[in-house]
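[Solved] Which block belongs to which protein?

Original post:
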Amino acid sequence: QVQLVESGGGLVQAGVSLRLSCAASRRTLSRYALGWFRQAPGKEREFVAAISRSGTSTLYADSVKGRFTISRDNAANTGYLQMNSLKPEDRAVYYCAARLLGDYNQVPPQRPSDFNYWGQGTQVTVSS
C-alpha cells in the first residue's frame, strides 16, 4: 500500500506556470504507474496525464497536451506535473493516483477506476 500527498497548488493568473508534486510514503514508488486527474466544481473527475513506472511512456488529455508535462523521480519517490500556460478552465482540484503494475515499461492506464491509490488533492485556481 502507498500513501500519496500532493502539493504545489495555488491561486495564479492565466498564463503562468505551476508545478505539482506527488510524494509517496513508501520507497517503492517505482513499482507504480502514476496518474494525474482533476475535478472541477460540478464536473466528473477527468484524466490529465499518466506515466509508466519507468517514465518512458506518457499519456496526456488533449486539453493539456503541449502545456503540461508529467514526470517522476523514482529515487525521490515523487511524481510531478508541470503546468505551463495555465488557463481559467484548468481550475480544479488535482489528484495524484498510483497503480501497481508488473511491467516496468507498460503503458499506464487512464481511467480513474484503474488506479488503486489516491492523494487528497490540491486546489489549482487560475484567474483571468
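(Second protein starts here: sequence line, then its C-alpha cells.)
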Amino acid sequence: QVQLVESGGGLVQPGGSLRLSCAASGRIFSIYTMGWYRQAPGKQRELVARITSGGSIRYADSVKGRFTISRDNAKNTVYLQMNSLKPEDTAVYYCNAYYSNDYWGQGTQVTVSS
C-alpha cells in the first residue's frame, strides 16, 4: 500500500511558476513509476509527466519545455516544476504511483489566472 500526499498548488499569474511535491509512504518508493496527471473541469484526466524507477521521463506535448519532473528516492518524493504557466494549465493535479497497482493522491488545485 502506498499513500501519496501532494502539495504546492495555488493561484499564479500567466507566465509564473509553481513547484508541486508528492510525498509517498512506504519503503520501496524507488521501484515505482511516478507520475503527475491533471484534470480540468469537464475534461478527462490526462498524463502530464512521468518518471520511471530507472529515470526515464515522458512529458505530454503540451508541457514539453515548460515542466520538469524529478524524483528524490531518499526523500520518497516526486516533484513537478512548472514554468511559463498558461491559463490552460488550470486543473487539479494528481500524483500517481504505479507498480502492479495504481495509487493516487488526493489532488492539488492549480489555477493560472490574471
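Accepted answer:
You had them paired correctly. Confirming on the second one: The chain has no helices and eleven strands.
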